[in-house]
Amino acid sequence: MTMLYVPRPFPITDLETWVRQESRRDQEHAVDLLERLQILQRTADPKKPRSFLLTNPFALSLRQALTGAGHHKSFGVPSNIQNQDPIPIAQLDEFARGQWEGILGYMVGSTAVGLGNQGARLSPSVKHLLQYGGLVEAKGVSVGITQDGFAFALQEVNSQVWTVLILYLENAEQLGMESVDVLSFLFMLGSLELGQSYSKVNLTATQLQMLLDLRDLGIIYQDTPDSDHYYPTRLATTLTSDAGALRSASAGFDGALRSSSSDDRGFVVIETNYRLYAYTSSPLQIAILSLFARLITRYPNMVSGKMTRESVRRAIDMGITGDQIIDFLYTHAHPQMRKNSTTILPPTVVDQIRLWQIEGERMKTTVGFLFKDFASEKEYLDPCEYARDIGVLVWRNDKSRMFFVTRHEQIAAYLKNQRERRREGGS
Question: Against a cut of 0.85, is the pTM above it?
């Protein structure tokens, strides 16, 4: 950034004053990389120290991007809407919340647990994107959340949005889009103003297609797909925000609209007898709880249930780990649990969740061959040691003179050679 507005070549000696001695190798690597990308160019003057200058196309484009100059309009083109009232910010928030919670609800299968379709109807492109990113996997006509998907649901809302946008960028070529146009539009989104409408006149064909997809994600609002303007929602304008951790879409918007402490996010109470009480009416949060708990009763603002071996094992079979369940309960623990206990979660519950996970890891099947019934100790030890040396030995029992291997061809050939040697020695 310092070199961006320096018209003269920048000496390497000045650059080295910014770098620690132990980082000189990293500096040389970075300079070499920028030269190969034609971002830096070396000045040819043997009488002066080695100097560098930013290439003019790159420097000009970067200055225009930072200042919004040129025809690129990196900060968007505000739209002057006549004879039409602007969309209220509250309506934009409601739209974005519905779309994003619809995506998360689709991932955790909220309709499958009888909660109804509280979110938006997802387009095929959004569903394909979630499957491409490994957040869900198809199971016949339905989908199921994966281990990565459950970890995604526990992230703050900004991290969730960036994860989906990175997947979108990686998938751009398969969608027939220009990656450069996609990337430049994503950078522009973070600089837009909430509540301001923007014109579509300067957008490329790729970016016009992106508007339709980002509308499905709740990042962009349009009255109709054919509208000549669009509004960024809070999901777009907070892309570059360093706001506090927002653990869900609802918490994300609530935290953006009002200041709240971390305790306001807690709603789960769990007892030592594994009974669970969740003070929430959010279909999304209830759907997440149903992944690892058996919900028994639902009230207008609370659900109750119990964590059982079957419910936790079902979650583990879906790819959710015991530590992820513990992290979810810890993150969303009710403020009362944080006040009355130094450990927050009952240790018996934490230990039991881990034990239920270990149950499925106690037995491991290995296809192989068992060798037994050796006549002598030496007849047993020789092939056993040979199996260990070639890396096919899985298990041995010296007392019973038995060992188990994954491949038998080399062991059988070794035993045959041993018998022939004994026969030759005896003759």
Answer: no
Backbone angles phi, psi at 117, to 5 degrees: -95, 90
* Of 257, 268, 203, 265, nearest in space to 230 by CA: 203
DSSP β-bridge partners for residue 397: 402
Cα-only R_g, the chain: 31
Question: Quick one: CA dihedral 97, 221, 131, 166, positive or negative?
Answer: negative
Distance CA 134, CA 136 (A): 6
User: CA nearest 219: which of 152, 164, 286?
Assistant: 164
Q: Are 292 and 261 in contact (CB under 8 A)?
A: no
Of 14-18, 244-248, 355-359, 416-420, the one with minimum mean pLDDT is 244-248
Distance, in Å, from the CA atom of 179 to the CA atom of 426, rounded to the nearest integer, reads 77
State the burial class of residue 7 (Cβ atoms within 10 Å of its Cβ: 0-12, 13-18, 19+). exposed
Please report which residue ranges of 124-257 form alpha helices under DSSP H: 124-132, 147-153, 157-170, 179-189, 205-217, 234-237, 249-257
Cα separation of the two ends of the chain:
88
pLDDT band with cut points at 50, 70 and 90 for residue 241: low
- pLDDT digit string, tens, across residues 349-399: 999 999 998 887 766 778 899 999 998 998 999 999 999 988 899 999 999
